[in-house]
Amino acid sequence: MKRIGFPILLIAMAIYCSGPLLWQCITSLKPESELTRIPPIFPGDPTVNHYISIFEGYPFMRIILNSAIVSSATTLLSLVLGCLSAFGLSKLRVRHKAFILGFVLSVSMFPAIATVSPLHIIIRGLGLRDTWWALILTYTTFSLPLSIWILTNYFQQIPDEICLSARIDGCSPFQTFCRIMLPLSAPGIFTTAILVFIFSWNEFLFALTFTSTPASRTIPVAIALFPGLHEVPWGDIAAASVLVTLPLIFLVLTFQRRIIEGLTAGAVKG
Amino acid sequence: MVHTITAAVLLLCSLLPACTGAEKNIAGSTVLVFKHGKIAGDPHLLRQLLDRFESENPGIKVRDETLPASTDEQHQFYVINLEGKSSDFDVLSMDVIWVPEFARAGWLRDLSHLLSGDERTDFFPGPIGAVTFKDRTFAIPWYIDAGLLYYRKDLLQKYGFPPPETWQELVRTAHSITGKETGLYGFIWQGKQYEGLVCNALEYFWSNGGDVFRDGDIALTRPENIQALRFMRDLIGTYKITPPLVTTAIEETTRHIFGNGRALFMRNWPYAWNIFEREDSTVKGKVGVSPLPSFGGKMSAATLGGWQLGVNRYSKNPEAAEVLITFLTSRESQKFSALTIGYKPARKSLYRDKELREKQPFIASLFDVFMSARSRPVSPYYMMMSQILQPELSAAVSGIKTPEEALRSADEQIGHIMRGINE
Amino acid sequence: MNKTESGNWFVIPALILLSLVTVYPVLYVFSLSLQRRLLIFDISRFAGLDNYLFLLRDERFWNALKNTVYFSAVSVSLELILGFSIAMLLHRSFRFRGIFRGIVLVPWAVPTVVSARMWEWMYNTDFGILNHILGVKINWLGSPVWALYAAVFMDVWKTTPFVAILLTAGLQVIPQDLYQAAKVDGASGWAVFRRITLPLLKPVILIVLLFRTLDAFRVFDAVYVLTGGGPANTTETLSIYAYKVLFQTLQFGYGATLSVVVFLCVGSISVVCIKLLRRGIR
What we know:
The complex is a heterotrimer of chains A (270), B (423) and C (282). Chain A is 75% helix and 0% strand.
């Protein structure tokens, strides 16, 4: 019984998670006239028109590039600042540690809609309107709480003795950080990286407010620009969603291996 | 590891010079930024119009930037930017209900000098009223919209019914036909909790002789209004010609259902017509359009919609912006927009234009509807009123509250605001 | 655990960025909340605690608070249970585990607005796939009874991967020899779970609980696109109400007040969470 139970659960989980996206896939291949009809569930006359139309007459490639750059830079910056802070908080002496963690957490406590106006003023004041940096700075700031908390927790789980022995061997704290901590916490780092990347990739409100042209516009805003005042091109939206999610899935699958590799190494040491 | 970090930091630094935003001046000419919602249809058509403007006005370049289609998001964008005194755009396209609000907040430039007496009368009275605040004009009407009744003329003909002129007729016709045809909803409209619901509800109130105000006082609890609201609820609950799904429906939802041939009557804006007449439409040639019905003996009423062009008070190029607006709202431009994009002109004279009537016969029949279209309360506080009305109307339509309760509650809340104004 | 080196320099970069970017907005919001600022009434004056007093009497606020609390509680509970189950499922070593881990992340990877539109599409009474499969004609998004649940379910679908991936990472760090030792001692599966897995996972559970609750309490995009707060405000959360007050009615002062209240609520919940779970850590 248990033998069959496990695969069944797995498949159920897979359907639950990917079902809606698969449905989007199917929708994206349906011709316009079939979109709002059920049956048929499967397109009687599959077409790639929707995919073509999202690239036609719209600089979608540039949009994808913007998203890729903003998300990568955010992830990098967030990880760098997050790892540094986490190391300081977990392995070294920092006064008011609880206060700092609380302050960091409180950054995430305001509803985004409240902070968008004043932030917009800052961004404009700095002349960063419609640039990548406006988004990178904002996203890094708002992803830092998650990064710092996850990474601090992760670093805490790595035994102090390892760091102490490195210090005894003559490493400076920074060297300990680079040579010992980072490799050991690969799973935590990659987990954080995925979460931060996805957060930046999909963020909408700030992207909408801080960008005004395809020069810096990101994917979620571009998708929001698809619908006409009354016409909602479901097919195009479906195609765009499929296109936009695939890179993320690809990224995740690639990182998955690293996580497993890092894990086996960690488990042996642990 | 250190190498990786250094590389990463260098990479980040290389992004610094990237993308510092577009230039405001291309070699001496003025660059105007025109912000508008997504154009229904081909965006190149608007660009053509703007190119024509640029060739007629050397020295001015126009950059048009689209905003998301959702009117909420457009409103939010304008609020954030105008409150922050941004000069990032010069000309903006506004929904008819925003103009008094933006004018009162001091975000729009006074454009009264752009509309001489003759020009004013060429526009429909409804939009002109909506863009006038304290006797000054703050926007020029660009294109107009009003609620219409769509019906399946093939089915009405088949069963020998004329297009209904009263709501009771509509109910009877719908009952009769849906009894004989399967898979058909009687009457669909927009009942989701949003601005469109207010548009729909007002049409019932007005066509029963009711209104939001009477003699300057809030009068939502008038019997005419209560009756009308009860009728809306009855469409779903008692007569059952409207399916409950109407409480999640917006324009597009109903357009899809009707366009698939699954409904007999629909209330919607004129845009749907162009879509129904497309080649691959299931209902091509089967759709008729008429003014909305009324309650026996009273006047039919349609809610006024449409978009207006204004100038950002903080714009650095107000004169050039005014030239652009004059161009876009001129006869020629509005005719071009009507023929290509399908925007219904806000100028009355165009409805007598031969070419337009030939190419789009549908347009002639809209003239009367647009003339008699009524505005939602033209007031800076309209958005507040709408935010109070929406949930109450939604509660009544979903059957959570009785019409009396809903309207009484709305009346109280709006009355509270009105008192706050006069304090 | 002798920590003699100062870690200040490691923490300072992040703190600088956070302070620079958030200090002005936070002060701005707090100060606005004390003002009565209605440009359309031409009012812009200091009003002290008036806004807060009004809030206490505001029925719509209490309705939004109730919806938000309900939404968060149900959402987060379901996510924890589901996320945990998925994490346990993926804990075992088996072929294709990597691929399944990738699949699990799909809902999280889809942009929120896209996901909301997708679900709006699926919940459609007329041609939605959900009604088609179930063979019913339920008015999911238009029924005062079902709408909030529909929103909850969509949110659970979307954010369970977040829980799952963090719990997975947490599970993997638990040293294998602890399990070996337990096996040798003849401990049952449940005992192992209670005595070894759960306690060691407490820190991760805390993080998950904290951040999920923070996000659920502040939920805006997903619900707004799905239902707009309707029908009849039955799905109007605090953020949606604040949004409407701020951007639809231009009541900047009161909108800021609502935001501050959200901040205070979320802050209190965080403090409670941390206190509750801190006993399990160290």
